[in-house]
Amino acid sequence: MVFAKTTVIENWTHPLMTSSLTEIVLPQRPPGMPCPAVVTDGDRRSLFVALAAVDDPRDPRGRRYPLVAILAAAVCAVIAGACTFAAVTDWVRFQDRTVWARLGFDDRVPVATTVWRLLIRIDAEALSQVLARWLRSRVAPVPAAGHWWRRVIAVDGKVARGARLADGRQVHLLSAYDTSTGIVLAQVQIAVKSNEIPAFTPLLRQVKNVLGSLDGVLIVADALHAQVGHADLLAADSAHLMVTIKANQPTLHDQVKGLPWSKVPIGAQTRDTGHGRKETRTVKALTVATPGGLGFAHAQQAVRITRTRTVKGKTSRETAYLTSSLPAGQARPSDLGAWARAEWQIENRLHYVRDVTLREDAHQAWTGNGPAVFATLRNTSVGYHRVNGATNIAEATREANHRPHDLITAVTTGKPTVNSEKATTQ
């Protein structure tokens, strides 16, 4: 089989030699097929163009299939619901030859072992950044209303329960989830749960690489990340931190709990009903950036959120305490309440979908970078469907599976899909 250095086009490739940065290696266009317009250097939204930035770990000798073709096939397959390496191969194998050609294959496609051996060697963190940039490039920004806007990123860890490291330990992944778009901006693999704290710094470094800057970004996280080092790190990049305060920081927890909350007026209150449940959320906020304030770096406000739930006639109440590095002038109580709920999105809109719809916990990946790479593909699938406005990811994957040509056209077109990137407003 003969390969030529080519310029990426929307669905096929054009066999012209060029010095463009969009050059990738793909098979020549099948004979007799019309040649569409060439994608220009300014069009960076094609999946083929994005994946050209991923380094190929294989020896140059004996490469039968282009790396971009295999990676693009894997991305499309998982968008269409493939949950394992074998399922990725089957999805490609069951397509007709026109789909093969559009993905970059000729008269044959790689077998399962070929796909598996390659994907477990790919740099998972580099792939995550490439695909995050690709998804972000497909979102048309919408100007936010109001005087301020805030990008809110939820940080949380997840254990891939079916996967194991070489020593038998479970694979633990820490992710940064953009709550305005549904895109995972970065993901790092860590050894065990207790190591989630030091993994925060490399994770934020990746987020900065994807966004270009952390200026004005708000990171929301659980009590594990109520760390002075985290607050210092974000403050150095003009970013902000909002974290829950629990007993893992006993002194800080006692300080926040002991504030004169009974004298603080209610700042915001919301009521929700649904699924037989009634819930009232009451938010109070208190400025603490004064001499003798909280013993936590860069803390500007303390927050108390009281949740009262009534389910089947039984009422329960719980109180959560948080701290934020945003002053009252930039974070009203209603905003603080909304941002606190935004932290749940990474659990409800990402981790739950990866487990239930894409069956992550049932996938027994043990070798190399396989668990992290496939988690990145799942993140991309969820982010892709969120960007397209899907609220039911299971339904969206089934639709993509039944319409492979539409899927390939969508991922290789240069136009954004929907105006999804809406910043949280104040």
UniProtKB/TrEMBL annotation:
Residues 50-135 form the H repeat-associated protein N-terminal domain. The keyword Membrane applies. It holds the Pfam family DDE_Tnp_1_assoc. The chain crosses the membrane at residues 67-88. Residues 150-370 form the Transposase IS4-like domain. One of its GO terms (biological process) is DNA transposition. One of its GO terms (molecular function) is DNA binding. Keywords: Membrane, Transmembrane, Transmembrane helix. This is Transposase DDE domain-containing protein. It comes from Actinoplanes derwentensis.
